[in-house]
Amino acid sequence: MKLLFDQNLSPRLVQRLQPDFPGSAHVRDFQLEAATDPEIWTFALREGYAILSKDSDFHQLAFAQGPPPKVVWIQRGNCTTSDIAELLRSARGTVEKFLEEPDTAFLILE
Is pLDDT above 90 for 50? Predict the structure, then answer.
């Protein structure tokens, strides 16, 4: 389950969640921290990542372009890195099922 963590999420999440989401990376790992959303979208598509973000722009891209890539949208206000890690761990099965569904573009986690 390769997730590409957007710049609005802590890079520390990747290491914390590696056992649950192996192969995941942060945009910073590819020098994409200043990239536009469409550039990140194109990279994720080319490299086989699903995008994980708190940014609603990816939600809009998912509607406009459709999958792939898929988008997991964390729809929470201010929260800690630990809160996000716990949310993703508890939703692992849901995320896994979502990534296996070919026609579903986005998943909202609250």
Answer: yes
